[in-house]
Amino acid sequence: MFFKNIIYSLGYATIVTAVTTDQFVLDVSLGKFVNNVKSEGSLVVDVDPGFGAQLNVSIYSFDNYDTLVTAYESYEKAISQQNFGDAVLLAETIDFNGINNNQILNGDIANAIIARAKSDISIFDVWSNSSSTAELSNYFQNLKSLASSDKFEFIAKRDNLQCSGSHVPGSGDCQALASGLHNSMGNQVPYSPRSTCYSSCCVSWSSPSSMTNGDLYGAVARCLQSCIYNDQSCEIRDYDYSGNTCVSNRATGCS
Fold it and tell me: Are 46 and 5 in contact (CB under 8 A)?
């Protein structure tokens, strides 16, 4: 069954020369897409076309909104052409605030795609065979081999604050995110989107909340000291009685 719900909300964007969707997919599949222009806005998408290519994201980006829009437009085109392998990679790129380089492509994004497969090894062949580039097709075959080795990392629980070696954000980006939240501490956290990002650092929460940006600032500041400065991501369970709050390099996955 196909379900689709999309909300665009542009806060601020600088108009730049648009990259074609085909070129965007190629650059992303090679882990070399770079966007040096900052733009701000939110993207809320709930789409499930099947074949493991679902996209459920609710993100406010302080710096990379135009990339998220390009990625989503490329995702829509991929779905229309049944390039489900493209769609999977684009969905994960959106989940990581449009940040895509070789390290992330073969690290956290690779781990997220393996988790997306839910132990169904055959789905990698579906994604590989429906990719628009040979590079991306080979990428999924390599992930299939990695997934078959069954070597995965899980979060080690520690009180209500947990640090993990997966999905690690940049400490400098988290400092910038904390600064942005601090400057708007009295603002109420919206029902949607349920994440706020600056470059490689996202703070997200698991359920609709009565928190303010000041509460999010407190979570990011705590995670910086406890985890992020030690090259780890962070999850705070039952934070401010509003479910779980996470600070990582992706906008979703906080549950």
Answer: yes
Tell me whether residue 60 is in a domain: yes
Residue recorded with tokens 């990002």:
197
Residues 80/123, Cβ–Cβ less than 8 Å? no
Higher pLDDT, 158 or 105: 105
Residue 153 resides in a domain: no
Residues in the chain: 255
Residue 253 placed within a domain: no
Phi, psi of 139 (to 5 degrees): -60, -45
- Whether residue 254 lies inside any domain: the answer is no
Instruction: Give the count of beta carbons closer than 10 Å to the beta carbon of residue 5.
Output: 9
Same domain, 186 and 121: no
Q: How far apart are CA 119 and CA 53, in angstroms?
A: 15
Range of the domain at 93: 3-148
This prediction's pTM:
0.68
Is residue 219 exposed (0-12), middle (13-18) or buried (19+ Cβ within 10 Å)? buried
CA 174 – CA 168 distance, rounded (Å) = 11
Residue 100 gets which letter from DSSP? Answer: -
Gyration radius of the chain's alpha carbons: 17
> Do 187 and 132 share a structural domain?
no
pLDDT tens-digit map of 164-174: 999 999 999 99
